[in-house]
Design goal:
The chain is mainly alpha-helical and 167 residues long. The chain has two domains: 1-103, NADH-ubiquinone/plastoquinone oxidoreductase chain 6, subunit NuoJ (Four Helix Bundle (Hemerythrin (Met), subunit A), Up-down Bundle), CATH 1.20.120; 120-167, no CATH class. The chain contains seven helices and no strands. The protein has helices at residues 2-22, 26-46, 50-75, 87-109, 121-127, 129-140, 142-163. The longest helix has 26 residues, at 50-75. The N and C termini lie far apart (57 Å).
Length: 167
């Protein structure tokens, strides 16, 4: 049953990812991006990580896509002239196929490094997912977390400045 759910979710995720790049309307692309994020949340649930699935839905499918749609509406991309360039699509399709085959080869015939982390299933059972993630985010990786939040703030301010260029 899990295999069927995995392949069904994979088909939906791949089709939605294709539609993200092929839709002419940017709002439809954002809606398909939500579907891709929800499929990723299903994979987190299948990997027995419900906290990450909830964060995936709240942060990415919720906040990030709302931010993307906000920027789309703010920049008023519907009035811009849309030209379709297809000369780069063939090259990127060939490159994506090569990356897919190389990744498939390494997954099938590669070996794991044999290294294990300090977080085992016993540690997760004793502390819990939320405490371990919070400890890693706010103790071990505090500087990268703060840099990412500053980059998001700069992106939002940049979008507002770009949208106000006519005023």
């Amino acid at each position: 049953m899990e295999v069927i759910l995995f392949y069904l979710t994979a088909i939906v995720a791949i089709m939605s990812a294709i539609f993200v790049t092929q839709c002419r309307n940017p709002v439809n692309s954002a809606l398909n991006l939500i579907t891709v994020f929800l499929c990723l949340a299903v994979y987190y649930v299948m990997l027995e990580s419900p906290f990450m699935a909830a964060i995936q839905i709240m942060v990415y499918a919720g906040a990030i896509v709302v931010l993307i749609v906000f920027v789309i509406m703010l920049l008023n991309l519907g009035l811009a002239v849309k030209e379709r360039y297809t000369h780069g699509m063939a090259g990127s399709g060939v490159l994506a196929a090569i990356v897919l085959f190389v990744a498939n080869y390494f997954i099938r015939y590669g070996e794991a490094t044999g290294t294990g982390g300090s977080v085992t299933s016993e540690v997760v059972a004793s502390y819990g997912h939320t405490e371990l993630i919070g400890r890693a985010m706010f103790v071990d990786f505090l500087l990268p977390f703060e840099i990412a939040s500053i980059l998001l703030l700069v992106a939002i301010v940049g979008a507002v400045i770009i949208s106000k260029r006519e005023v």
